[in-house]
């Protein structure tokens, strides 16, 4: 599989390329946003590892252009931007995952392989699962034509589940992506958030879409 690393820190780019090459990937690199975007639009890649703070064009801008051109290839943000707002912005712009520097290469490798097993991102502006419709651009969600009154965090949680529909997301993954926290098994923040989301997305409707996989996590899918 062919990967593209868009990273302006030469030491980091070299480290990543060597490690990924040793694990069987073919790797290209670019060191600014314009070159990275050009390679994506003219080449064929299975995944892009993208920094946010790039010269010439930011990672935000690059992923936006990728999606606007209809490219569904997976994007993994690898960046020092570690706030919850940054993570949510990256996911809402169309990234598959978001890993904060400093990072463990072993974790990066696991995330890359997990993303590649999933296949291309569902990159439509609108996601449809059963009678649930999610308008990612306008931050609106509907069931059977009825608009759901979702708080911003609830919409982000629903969008995360919908983008990865059919995949069981662990509490750790959800907490990492939306709350910028290391999940503690004694903390019920994810369960509380799912419960509140269900009261709006599932409870008023006969078909339930958010399912609990006991001991693992949650999945959005139609049974």
UniProtKB/TrEMBL annotation:
Residues 2-116 form the Response regulatory domain. Keywords: DNA-binding, Phosphoprotein, Transcription, Transcription regulation, Two-component regulatory system. Pfam families: Response_reg, Trans_reg_C. Residues 124-222 bind DNA. Coiled coil: none annotated. GO terms for molecular function: phosphorelay response regulator activity; transcription cis-regulatory region binding. The modification 4-aspartylphosphate is found at residue 51. Residues 124-222 form the OmpR/PhoB-type domain. The keyword Transcription applies. The keyword Transcription regulation applies. One of its GO terms (cellular component) is cytosol. This is Response regulator. It comes from Geomonas terrae. GO terms for biological process: regulation of DNA-templated transcription.
């Amino acid at each position: 599989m062919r990967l593209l690393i868009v990273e302006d820190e030469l030491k980091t780019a070299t480290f990543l390329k060597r490690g990924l090459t040793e694990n069987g990937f073919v790797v290209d690199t670019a060191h600014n946003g314009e070159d990275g975007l050009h390679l994506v639009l003219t080449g064929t890649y299975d995944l892009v590892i993208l920094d946010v703070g790039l010269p010439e064009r930011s990672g935000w801008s690059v992923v936006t252009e990728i999606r606007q051109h209809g490219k569904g290839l997976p994007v993994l943000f690898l960046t020092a931007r570690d706030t919850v707002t940054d993570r949510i912005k990256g996911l809402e712009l169309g990234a598959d995952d978001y890993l904060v520097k400093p990072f463990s290469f072993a974790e990066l490798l696991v995330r890359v392989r997990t993303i590649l097993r999933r296949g291309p991102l569902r990159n439509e502006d609108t996601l449809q699962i059963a009678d649930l419709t999610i308008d990612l651009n306008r931050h609106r969600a509907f069931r059977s034509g009825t608009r759901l009154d979702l708080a911003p965090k609830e919409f982000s949680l629903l969008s995360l589940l919908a983008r990865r529909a059919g995949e069981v997301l662990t509490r750790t993954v959800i907490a990492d992506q939306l709350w910028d926290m290391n999940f503690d098994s004694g903390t019920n923040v994810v369960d509380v958030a799912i419960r509140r989301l269900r009261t709006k997305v599932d409870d008023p409707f006969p078909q339930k879409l958010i399912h609990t996989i006991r001991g693992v996590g949650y999945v959005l899918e139609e049974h």
